[in-house]
Amino acid sequence: MSAPGIFLQGHVAIGGAPLVPQITLDVAPGSWTCLLGPSGVGKSTLLRLIAGIADEATLTGTLAASDGAPLRGRVALMAQSDLLLPWLSVLDNVTLGARLRGADTQPERATALLEQVGLIDHAAKRPAQLSGGQRQRAALARTLMEDRPIVLLDEPFSALDARTRAQVQDLTAQLLSNHTVLMVTHDPSEAARLGKAILILNERGLAPWPVPPGAPPRPVDDAKTLEAQGALLAALRAAP
Predict the structure, then answer these.
(1) At 177, which helix (H) or strand (E)?
(2) Separation CA 28–CA 9 (nearest Å)
(3) What's the domain count of the chain?
(4) pLDDT band at 8 (very low <50, low <70, confident <90, very high)
(5) Residue 35: inside a domain
(6) What's the rounded mean pLDDT across residues 137-153?
(7) Least packed by Cβ within 10 Å: which of 117, 168, 190, 208?
(8) Is there a domain that residue 134 lies in?
């Protein structure tokens, strides 16, 4: 699987009202980019545009994959909520996309993914029987089951406690290596740990932010990562 980059240039409006100003978003192929900024500036809308599900938004400009092929069919979106269907088992939730498309559910592959995310012993359980971290791992397995080279993450770890969040971050970084990942987050520590590139979006536009040294996921107690986290938080707090 070759993971293309994403190129978006233009401005976005909803119902004729401006939302995102003129920006150039250039996400490198096969790497993890973190997008931060205040609420209401259009971060999630950008993800939905790339995923092709933002019917309420209008992009005036260009949206393309770096290899020139269509984005359609090559993008998976993992939302803030796990969106597991409560009446289905974990295994059936993981294979839901294939079943809705009338495609092969690939039970052996789904089982292997549940093994990778540490949920094989919970495959027959319903979501209500899982912890928050387990539910997010199930959602991750479902995302991986789609086998898309581009993965969009919309604050997928925000509801987890600090210990579980770090564990699921590490697992996600491992399983999404070689994918092109664009993640919206409000957590500077998350961006400092996971980002190969960090971008800040606000009402004025989009700007890059320096990343700490070292390959993601960076250790939670790494001095340079903590320094970058603090500087990023200060910059976000200082923004008008």
Answers:
(1) none
(2) 14
(3) 1
(4) very high
(5) no
(6) 92
(7) 208
(8) yes
Rounded-to-integer distance, Cα 230 and Cα 167, Å: 21
127 touches 86 (CB < 8 A): yes
Token code pair at residue 166: 């770090």
Q: Count Cβ atoms within 10 A of the Cβ of residue 128 and give its class: 0-12 exposed, 13-18 middle, 19 or more buried.
A: exposed
Does residue 35 contact residue 201 with C-beta atoms inside 8 Å?
Answer: yes
Question: Is residue 70 one of the residues assigned to a domain?
Answer: no
**What per-residue confidence (pLDDT) applies to 2?**
79
Q: Would strands 6-14 and 57-65 be described as parallel, antiparallel, or unpaired? A: antiparallel
Q: What is the pTM of this model?
A: 0.93
pLDDT, tens digit, 9 for 90 and up, residues 171-208: 899 989 999 999 999 999 999 999 999 999 999 999 99
Strand partners, 200: 36, 207
- Does residue 203 sit in helix, strand or coil? coil
Tell me: cis bond preceding 217? Omega within 30 of 0 counts: yes
Considering the domain boundaries, does residue 108 fall inside one?
A: yes
Domain that holds residue 121: 86-147
Measure the CA dihedral 91/94/95/98, to 10°.
170
Whether 206 contacts 193, CB under 8 Å: no
In sign, the C-alpha dihedral spanning 104, 138, 32, 23 is positive
